[in-house]
Amino acid sequence: MEKKVLVFISFLFVFFTVWGAAEAATLYFSPSSGSFNVSQTFQVGVFVSGEGQAVNGYSGVVSFPRDKLLVASVATAGSIVNYWVTEPSFSNSTGRVSFEGVTLNPGFQGSAGRIITITFKGSKGGIAPLEWQESSVLAADGFGTNVLRSVSGAQFSIAVAPPLTPAPPLKEPEEKEAEKIEIPKPEPEPAPLEVKEVKEEPLSPFVKFGTIAISYLTIMSTLVVLSVVAIGIVFYAWYRINIWRKRMRAETKEVAQSVLSAFKALREEVAEQIELLDGKPGLNRDERRVRDKLKEALSVSEEFIGKEIKDIEKSLE
Known about the structure:
By secondary structure, the protein is α+β, with helices and mostly antiparallel strands.
């Protein structure tokens, strides 16, 4: 039992050690050292390393000795940052450089992600260290977990440039050995070229009037063309509607004639049946009622069909 507990504890220790190492991130400078002269400029890049974990948020405050270094500029060219929460800035009076930025999804995963580039200038001889005052690196896990494990500083040596050694004085040649030195005459300087300013002449009233007339004619031509097109469309639509109405009138008349012919034949047949019933002696009550119903239905049908045909003809006029 004790062995199983020891094995389980060892497993947890190895797991969390590997998990923590896999999700660790580092902020560092490159180059981290070097020697430069006073008044000489040099660049230092701020990088993030997050090989085991995708990261997407970075912030930091870098301090530098303001008596030995001056910041000339802070550049974001080649940066992995897509959006700056706080634009990179610097202050030579306080000796600080600050930044805060974000890389959009899926974040950054690698060993050398450039965040900013700082350009320094040596101002005084001595050792000039770069140190982190504030720093954080957030994981791209949706929770903003700070996975910064370590930061690395930098140190630079600023040297005073040696003074220039004066050249030895030239010995004057003895009179005997002196040779005549012909001093070349200076060439006359070329006369300066006179650059005359060319003034644009204002347009004459005729030219202005012509320009306005051309613009007016262009607008009027466009309006005339559009009007002609619109009239053509209306005329074509009217023409097509008239053709359709004529065709419908002709078809309606044909249908009316057919219906009237059919109804006329039906009416004659029904009339014959009614005459037979009327001529038949001794009609009982049911037969007389059938005869009366046939007469009534015939009259109503004839009136209804005539009315509907007239309505259709009116709607097509």
